[in-house]
Design goal:
CATH class of the largest domain: Alpha Beta
Structural class: alpha+beta
CATH architecture of the largest domain: 2-Layer Sandwich
Shape: elongated
Helix content: 55-70%
Bound molecules: ligand 0O2
CATH topology of the largest domain: Beta Polymerase, domain 2
Largest sheet: 5 strands, mixed
Distance between the termini: 73 Å
Order of helices and strands: HEHHEHEEEHHHHH
Number of domains: 2
CATH superfamily of the largest domain: Beta Polymerase, domain 2
Number of helices: 9
Strand content: 15-25%
Strand order of the largest sheet: 1-2-5-4-3
């Protein structure tokens, strides 16, 4: 196969990775903008390199001309969650999306791989629009916690270092580390609600403060300097108390003032 042909073949997969990374990042940001906890913490993506495709084709005895049908992970998206419970939510989000058709799922969380690897895998079909027309491609989505990702990243590097033949002693340590990660994830689940409450109130405060500052910015156009200074001082005073309810009340008052000023300026 010629090198130019490879590039053309892989192009729709690269597009799928770029588009899906953006879409899942938008899902995360959508939650956060509304002051909600996002089940998605981080989104990564990669197009399998030609050399890695050739390695896998050789390892799995796949005919080179059929690699597209046989390999599910030419396009790969990785979604990292904080807690094990979030994985279920992300799986649900993926099932509900109209632009993704789930064709298979592997649950390596309930049943880890012999290596100790844990992750939830979904193979989906996704349509991209190339200059040659629409193309539906397979994408592998790996969903795992931060802790599972830490283990998988380290183990993956060791697989490369030892050419997939990790010495027994290191393998044993990795198995121990994988067991420790199950315990870590389950301990974190116990304190999940506490962490979620803290994160939610932080996000909520960040959003209210940003709304207040927008309101003040808009009021600058319709009010005099003395009035703006008074509003700002009041904002600093309430912000110092750290009381989110008072901040929300103050923001509502600013909304009303801003609305009144806008209406007044239209009448003039
Ligand atoms: P890369 O470099 O990430 O692209 P197989 O290779 O036979 O195990 P299969 O049948 O294609 O995999 O599907 P499976 O088991 O769902 O694994 C696909 C991908 O999951 C792998 O792709 C890895 O990314 C990840 N994975 C699976 N098992 C392990 C493991 O034991 N350790 C780590 N670190 N990752 C794993 P590639 O092509 O192997 O690698």
């Amino acid at each position: 196969m010629e090198i130019m042909l490879w590039r053309e073949l892989l192009e729709p997969y690269g597009m799928a990775v770029d588009e899906l990374m953006l879409k899942f990042t938008q899902v995360r940001d959508g939650y956060r903008k509304r002051g909600l906890y996002s089940p998605i913490e981080q989104v990564d993506g990669r197009l399998k390199t030609i050399s890695s495709i050739l390695d896998k084709v050789q390892r799995k005895n796949i005919e080179i001309d059929h690699f597209e049908e046989q390999l599910d992970d030419i396009a790969g998206i990785r979604i990292i969650c904080q807690f094990v419970e979030d994985i279920e939510k992300v799986v649900e989000i993926i099932h509900d999306r109209e632009d993704l058709k789930v064709i298979s799922e592997k649950d390596y969380i309930t049943e880890s791989k012999d290596s100790g690897y844990r992750s939830y895998h979904m193979i989906v079909l996704y349509k991209v629009h190339t200059i040659d027309g629409p193309r539906e491609v397979k994408v592998e989505i790996q969903i795992r916690t931060l802790a599972m990702n830490f283990w998988a990243t380290v183990e993956h590097s060791l697989q490369y270092k030892y050419d997939r033949d990790i010495p027994d002693e290191i393998r044993e340590r990795l198995t121990n580390a994988s067991d420790a990660i199950v315990i870590l994830d389950s301990e974190m689940s116990y304190v999940r609600q506490e962490i979620l409450d803290a994160q939610n109130s932080f996000l909520l405060e960040a959003n209210v403060v940003s709304d207040i500052l927008n309101n003040i910015q808009n009021l600058v156009r319709y009010s005099n300097k003395r009035e703006i200074k008074k509003i700002q001082d009041e904002f600093f005073r309430i912000h110092k108390t750290g009381n989110i309810k008072d901040l929300e009340r103050f923001n509502k008052e600013l909304d009303i003032i801003a609305e009144g000023r806008r209406a007044q300026s239209l009448e003039e």
